[in-house]
């Protein structure tokens, strides 16, 4: 399987990780306002589904044992490094350290599991050429069904693992295709119309007092409420459909690679991890402070990462600490 690397896709990744950072600052706002709720809902309507989809799209080397496990090790080193930092900060017990990915680390934990499971199944020749379709249907059913199980939540990141798994499989299914060519089937007018309509509906939802945060229901951070499970099940299905349409529109409107977004897109993991460290010790107390803080953190991380010497030393420090602890 070979994914065609397109610099425009790095721009999409860069845009998504900036939205992740902004979304986290907005949702950590201790005094959320109507504006922060609308912005957060718009961001959460598509950013993580599309992010996970792209992760699947660029997941390679399933037929190369050495390169595959080398990639898994790189993810694990990053996960372990920040898990140790956050476990100390949040005072995890030893047992909790191994079964509870710290805040924002669920993605790395789930990414390792998705890749390992797909690697195992593809090498077992399960379902032959129909493996991707079988996995897509299976993961979709599991992602809908997991909401009915109250005990499935943050432990081992199981809820998010199941909820986002179909997007990862869908990304793998699209490998070898140019996503921009595929999304060009939607006209530019339709793409902008969809994004505008989404924003208008979210504004109406919040003004009307329909206060069901998309990040709670869709992202899998909580099971369906016991008194209204089927309604929320339908709501999650609707979120899947709308997220897919919005994601296509987002890819469609990103027509030209942007140098800054390209650099950010290449370093998405570092932005994801380092902004999480800031949020361990800081929660903005108003919506303007949340926006300002997000911009400052993005600029600060960019200065560090775009300075080759600093970036290289940070990477070496991370590897040295992990190797030392593993001994």
Please write out the topology.
Elements: H1 7-27, H2 34-44, H3 47-57, H4 65-89, H5 94-99, H6 106-123, H7 131-145, H8 158-173, H9 179-183, H10 188-207, H11 214-217, H12 229-253, H13 259-266, H14 268-281, H15 287-305, H16 308-326
Helix pairs in contact: 1-2, 1-3, 1-13, 1-14, 1-15, 2-10, 3-8, 4-6, 4-16, 6-8, 7-8, 10-12, 14-15
Please give the share of residues in helix: over 70%
Instruction: List the quaternary state of the chains.
Output: single chain
> Using only CA atoms, what is the Rg?
20 Å
Average pLDDT metric: 83
Question: How many H/I helical runs?
Answer: 16
Low-confidence stretches: none
Could you give the distance between the termini? 36 Å
Query: What fraction of the residues are assigned to beta strands by DSSP?
Result: under 5%
Overall geometry:
globular
| Major sheet description | none
According to DSSP, the number of beta strands is: 0
Question: What is the H/E order?
Answer: HHHHHHHHHHHHHHHH
SS content category: mainly alpha
């Amino acid at each position: 399987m070979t994914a065609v690397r397109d610099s425009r896709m790095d721009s999409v990744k860069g845009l998504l990780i900036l939205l992740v950072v902004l979304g986290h600052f907005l949702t950590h706002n201790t005094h959320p306002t109507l504006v922060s709720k609308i912005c957060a809902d718009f961001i959460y309507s598509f950013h993580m589904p599309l992010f996970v989809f792209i992760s699947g799209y660029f997941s390679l080397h399933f037929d190369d044992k050495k390169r595959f496990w080398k990639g898994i090790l790189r993810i694990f080193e990053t996960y372990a490094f920040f898990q140790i930092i956050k476990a100390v900060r949040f005072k995890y017990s030893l047992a909790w350290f191994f079964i509870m990915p710290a805040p924002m680390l669920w993605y790395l934990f789930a990414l390792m599991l998705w890749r390992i499971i797909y690697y195992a199944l593809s090498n077992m020749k399960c379902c032959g050429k129909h493996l991707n379709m079988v996995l897509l249907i299976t993961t979709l059913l599991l992602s809908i069904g997991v909401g009915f199980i109250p005990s499935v939540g943050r432990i081992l990141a199981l809820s998010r693992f199941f909820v986002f798994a179909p997007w990862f499989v869908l990304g793998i299914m699209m490998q070898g295709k140019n996503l921009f060519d595929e999304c060009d089937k939607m006209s530019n007018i339709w793409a902008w119309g969809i994004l505008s309509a989404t924003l208008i509906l979210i504004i109406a939802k919040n003004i009307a007092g329909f206060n069901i945060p998309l990040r709670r229901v869709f992202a899998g951070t909580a099971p369906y409420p016991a008194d209204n499970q089927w309604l929320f099940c339908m709501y999650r299905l609707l979120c899947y459909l709308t997220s897919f349409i919005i994601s296509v529109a987002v890819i469609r409107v990103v027509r030209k690679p942007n140098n800054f977004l390209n650099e950010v897109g290449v370093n998405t993991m570092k932005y994801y991890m380092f902004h999480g460290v800031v949020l361990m010790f800081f929660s903005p107390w108003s919506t303007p402070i949340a926006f300002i803080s997000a911009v400052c953190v993005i600029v600060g991380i960019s200065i560090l990462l775009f300075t080759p010497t600093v970036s290289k030393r940070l990477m070496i420090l991370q590897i040295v600490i992990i190797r030392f602890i593993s001994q």
